[in-house]
Design a protein that fits this description.
single chain; about 575 residues; Glutamyl-tRNA Synthetase, domain 3; 27 strands; binds adenosine-5'-triphosphate; binds magnesium ion
Length: about 575
């Protein structure tokens, strides 16, 4: 059984965490001379997701709060999977979240010369050797968690021979896989990472930055700690799966103590796990490549490109990361926590508009045929300084289909035959008849209005009705494509155990409709957010909105409707 995900969290700003405590202590002890330098080190082999936002906010946030700096470093040691396209997208995502790396944009590949020189140094010190066994043979001798590994017959190969072979590996004399360079540590260590890990391999492949200069590439564990040290990082924050790699991180830097400027401290924290989503680059690639979503920035994906397009604001994401805090214990966060952060932000910042998503025609029988009048709708209910706008009324209007029930359920206070509701910002109307077509489908409803009840007048105060629905004048509407997005998966943990997440997709995660909108919305700019009254928060799609032809994405509904659904 999974722990129940965290669904509600304190609202206050989380000011401290165990990482900050370590930094405070270092500062008290004068360990780094008050210097705080962190880094966010993505591999440019895919798009960033909301999990990465945790690492970004943590690294940049800490640097900011301690008057330090945070580097953006591309860990680009795997050229077959990496591309400039990803580098560009990652830079864009980090900047979008509101962070600035200033002059500190780095690439591990900038250090290839130094990494190589250090490797020669390790060989010379008897701390590394060239291995002739194949990958399979290495694996067979590696031992298990309960039994030690076996020393390679090449472990004690003379230093000169290793050096010569390593130089020839670099010179391109051997095919891929012929040799590797291994650190000479301890084949019987209980920590598998310490059993003479491979630190260099041969790959005849073009690198997006260094071109064809190299045909040997350093491994992650060897590269990462040295890159941190070269950049004089003080606190190297990473996720818990690297805890077992920390002894290797420290071992490498201990061997190079005379060669690198400092020995950063690796500190691990729990990764973000979010319900109703998959969060590994590999699985996201599968979803994109199998066409199950519409590309990397599909608004249903948890990529940062996707959530941006969905309508998430950088502020809401930073708030979310702040709210969930940082700890060393793995936990699940319910996606509703993220959704709430967006609601809170947009509730403040999004102007209100009226949109009828699924229209039903309503004719006000006693309203004069060619009369039109102005109704005034506030742009924000709590911000009078945002003023009001005119929403015109005429005899024929559209309301939401859901706001009428021919046979009202118990507790239904909207329209039904004989019932009264207020048309928001206008009059009270009473349903007097229903038009149906030959098939029996409702085509229009007829109402009468009470001319003494216009909103904002004295008369309005005298009569109260329970229902209060939105509407748009048929003569005055514009049209827009609206994409009603919902969660991508029906299962809260689609990516756990032996579940096949591809079979757990929510078939209703995207519905595309043409809605009636206030005319001013026809000029919405890409990226503008609104609250469509009673319907949720929407954003004008960044990519598909064209002048005069907006496309709106539903970012989030006004309230969480999943709590109920998933507990049945
Ligand atoms: P994925 O596991 O999704 O493929 P990754 O860990 O391979 O991602 P990297 O480019 O190596 O991606 O990640 C860069 C940084 O982001 C690393 O320091 C990593 O620890 C951190 N990170 C990745 N996923 C999460 C997460 N879910 N929560 C917090 N930090 C994360
Ligand atoms: Mg990784």
């Amino acid at each position: 059984m999974k722990d129940k995900p965290v669904t509600s969290l304190p609202n206050e700003v989380v000011v401290s965490n165990f990482i900050r405590s370590i930094i405070d202590e270092d500062n008290r002890a004068g360990k780094w001379g008050q210097r705080v330098e962190t880094r966010f080190p993505p591999e440019p082999n895919g798009y960033l997701h909301i999990g990465h936002a945790k690492s970004i906010c943590l690294n940049f946030g800490i640097a900011h709060d301690y008057n330090g700096v945070c580097h953006l470093r591309f860990d680009d040691t795997n050229p077959e999977k990496e591309a400039q396209e990803y580098v560009d997208a990652i830079c864009e995502n980090v900047a979008w979240l509101g962070f600035d790396w200033g002059q500190n944009l780095h690439y591990s590949s900038d250090y290839f010369d130094q990494l190589y020189a250090f490797a020669e140094y390790l060989i010379a010190q008897g701390k590394a050797y060239v291995e002739s066994l194949s990958a399979d043979e290495i694996r067979e001798r590696r031992g298990t968690l309960t039994s030690p590994g076996q020393n390679s017959p090449y472990r004690d190969r003379p230093v000169d021979e290793s050096l010569d072979l390593f130089r020839r590996m670099k010179a391109g004399e051997f095919p891929d896989g012929k040799y590797v360079l291994r650190a000479k540590i301890d084949m019987s260590s209980p920590n598998m990472n310490m059993r003479d890990p491979v630190i260099y391999r041969i790959r005849h492949i073009h690198h997006q930055r260094t071109g064809d200069k190299w045909c040997i590439y350093p491994m992650y564990d060897y590269t990462h700690c040295i890159s941190d040290a070269i950049e004089r990082i003080t606190h190297s924050l990473c996720t818990l799966e690297f805890e077992d790699h920390r002894p290797l991180y420290d071992w490498v830097l201990d061997q190079l103590v005379d060669n690198v400027p400092c020995h950063p401290q690796q500190i691990e924290f729990a990764r973000l796990n979010l319900t109703y989503t998959v969060m590994s680059k590999r699985k996201m690639i599968e979803l994109v490549e199998s066409g199950l979503v519409d590309g990397w920035d599909d608004p249903r994906l948890s990529t940062l490109a996707g959530v941006r397009r969905r309508g998430y604001t950088p502020k809401s994401i930073r708030q979310f990361i702040e709210r969930i805090g940082v700890s060393k214990a793995d936990s699940w966060i319910d996606v509703s926590v993220l959704e709430d952060c967006l609601r809170e932000d947009l509730n403040e910042s999004a102007p209100r508009r009226v949109v009828v998503l699924k229209p039903l025609k309503l004719i006000i029988d006693n309203y004069p045929e060619d009369q039109e009048e102005d109704c005034f709708a506030p742009n924000h209910p709590k911000k009078p300084e945002w003023e009001s706008r005119i929403v015109p009324l005429s005899k024929t209007i559209y309301i939401e289909r859901d706001d009428f029930m021919e046979e009202p359920a118990k507790g239904y206070f909207r329209l039904s035959p004989g019932a009264e509701v207020r048309l928001r910002y206008a009059y009270i109307v009473k349903c007097v008849a229903v038009d149906k077509n030959a098939a029996g489908d409702i085509e229009a409803i007829h109402c009468t209005y009470d001319a003494d009840t216009k909103s904002g007048t004295e008369g309005a105060k005298k009569r109260k009705v329970k229902g209060n629905i939105h509407w748009l004048s048929a003569k005055h509407v514009g049209q827009a494509e609206v994409r009603l997005y919902d969660r991508l998966f029906v299962d809260p943990y689609p990516d756990t155990g032996d579940k096949d997440y591809k079979t757990l997709l929510n078939p209703e995660s995207k519905e595309v409709i043409v809605a009636y909108v206030e005319q001013s919305l026809s000029h919405a700019e890409p990226g503008q957010s609104f609250q469509f009254e009673r319907n949720g928060y929407f954003i004008a799609d960044h990519t598909d909105t064209k002048p005069g032809k907006p496309v709106f994405n539903r970012a989030v509904t006004l309230r969480d409707s999943w709590e109920k659904i998933t507990s049945v």
